[in-house]
Amino acid sequence: MSGESFNWHEFLGRWQEEWVPREDEDEERNDEGDGGRSAFHLGGPGAQESAIAAAEERLGRRLPTSYREFLAASDGWHVEQTAGVYQLGGVADIGWFQDPYDMTPLYEESLGDNPREEDVLLAGMWQRALRLETDSDMSYALLDPGDSDQDGEWALYVYKGWSGEFPDRYPSFRAYMEAMYRGFHADRAARPDFANATTRAQDAQVEEARLLALRGRYEEALPLVEEAGSFGRPHSAVLLNQLRHLSAPRSSRDYGFLVADPRYLPEILPVAAMTPARGEWRLGGDDHWLGMMTARGVPRETAETLLDTVRDGTHRYAPPGPWGRAVSEAREAARWGATDAAWRILRDALPRWEAPGPSLIAPIGLLADPVLGPLITPERGREILATPRDGEGGPAPEPVPDLDPPGLAWLTEPAPNHRSSEGYRCVWVEGIDPARLPALIGEEGAELSAPADPREVSWRAPRPHEREGVELWEDRAVVAVGRTAEGWAFAFDGSSHHLGDLFSSPARAASASGRAVVVWRGPRHSSPGDYPAAFHLSVAEQGEELYAFTVRGTEIRRSGVIPEALDPARLFRPEDGEPDGEQDAELRVLEALHTELGLSLPRFALTQGRLHTFTTRSWTRAPREGEGFGYVTFGGSRP
Questions:
Q1: Which of 359, 354, 364 is nearest to 235 (CA)?
Q2: Nearest to 490 by CA among 440, 450, 560, 547
């Protein structure tokens, strides 16, 4: 509060003037022609200074300023807190709570060895607090002199005895009363006859926030719409949800009945379907969600179809106009791994986005697109909000930096899913359409899948012993497909097995139409006695291998004329035998491959995006006479 003055007479007078009963109270107060509002007084005359001083002498404490000034303006008040405190008493009613229900030992027992300051204050509050309420639903309004701020204001706790929850804390009596006033408004916001200067001012604030948001000034809009939301004003929740949703795109938001409005349904309903599609809907599964959508006016068949397409990854965000054309272009780039380029397309087109109606302030539907949705990080979501849209003017925000580092060095970094010890393997083919890769290195009948999370597809792929017609020695990989910025088509598997003696490089098959490169790094282990991680490189062109090498520890096998920049004797050194040394050598090789051959991989698309996948032919050959192989499976569920 910082000592700022507050006019209690004006505040309480406005509350009294605006008061109407809740709809469930109408019959109870209907003996008056206006529902009883004119005859019902929330408070009364203020207490005399002498009465306040007498109460303080009785209590042995001077009351905090905001509570003292309140009593001088009104000796008690009907707060009407829903399912809680109903009436605050006057100076003659207040007294020390004195913990009649022995709450102190219960809270002290849970403090532990290193309690937080706020927990210590709460534990001692029960014996120190002043009890203010005279009518409640097993609830107590407790003013705590032991929990005070720099202005001498005491914190007020509201404890609902029937809830089993911790008390609600307000930093001062004034803060509590202001919250109750906002709650009074929120309880009546849906009443058509509830209109007054406050509701009109808050509605104007919502409209101001909407225009600020469309001009990219969302940080100014946020506190305005938050305040209007605390008053329960219509449309405030919808605007606030959009601002918060784009700032945290992986969260979920409820857009209420807006989901059924034909203007907004294509944007909002797919977003609403994301939670049940991910299996995160805990309240009765799909049927409950579908029932809720139906109750809000969405045809059940529409909701079912939308849920199915969001779940199986075939949903497409397809808005009209120039923005829609940019979305389509961005999706085409993103589905082949060019996520930074896709984001730049969207960023450039954002000013041309048009709101389908006044309740929408941003292209929320992007979040539900299986290919484009993962691109919207919190930073990019805030950039969307900071970009002027829908014909509104304003300065463009500073662009968010690209997310994909150049080259291949990122493959040595710890993965977000902590699977960094696993290997990887990749095939690059120069100058071809990635859609041709299944024909070059795919198993019989292989086709590209719809864009999907390549990690999930790989984890859930059946193993050789689970597939009819697949030999146990075979190592068929589920690979993610895309195109690098340098024009190479790639097929990548981020969880390879150990590179054994039966390994057969797919470089020759991949190079039927041009140069192909294969890299395999086996899983890395650090326990004594483990085999060192193997690293393989092979390069082929027009069906012929040009050169190759395989490194295991200090052993190097090589063939062909290897360029000096890729010479394994230069890149892998004797001191690289330790795990840290292996990683240093791997980094040198990957940097050389980027410099010498122009190879790269899109980190974001492979770790967080959605790409086409297919299953390759085996990366191992059949064992010859006298050769053996091992095949091990482990029980348990997959990730």
A1: 359
A2: 440
pLDDT band, residue 22 (cuts 50/70/90): confident
Q: What is the pLDDT of residues 495-513, one digit of tens each?
A: 877 777 788 999 999 999 8
Q: Where are the alpha helices (DSSP H) in 148-217?
A: 173-188, 197-214
Q: Please give the Cα distance from 144 to 141 (Å, whole number).
A: 10
Torsion angles phi and psi, residue 166, rounded to 5 = -65, 155
In sequence order, what are the residues at sequence separation of 6 or more whose Cβ sits closer than 8 angstroms to the Cβ of residue 114? none
Amino acid letter, residue 91: V
User: C-alpha distances in angstroms, 78 versus 40, 84, 85, 90?
Assistant: 10, 12, 9, 11
Res. 630: pLDDT tops 70:
no
At what angle are helices 218-230 and 173-188 packed, to 10 degrees?
80
Instruction: Report the C-alpha gap between 16 and 577 in whole angstroms.
Output: 81
The whole-angstrom separation of Cα 341 and Cα 337 is: 9
Q: What is the pTM of this model?
A: 0.87
Least confident of 15-29, 100-114, 208-222, 321-335: 15-29
* Contact by Cβ (8 Å): 484, 517: no
**Single-letter amino acid, residue 139:** S
DSSP bridge pairs for 158: 141, 168
Q: Which long-range contacts (CB under 8 A, 24 or more apart) does 566-574 make?
A: 566/537, 566/592, 566/593, 566/596, 568/537, 572/535
pLDDT tens per residue, range 392-448: 999 999 999 999 999 999 999 876 544 456 789 999 999 999 999 999 999 999 999
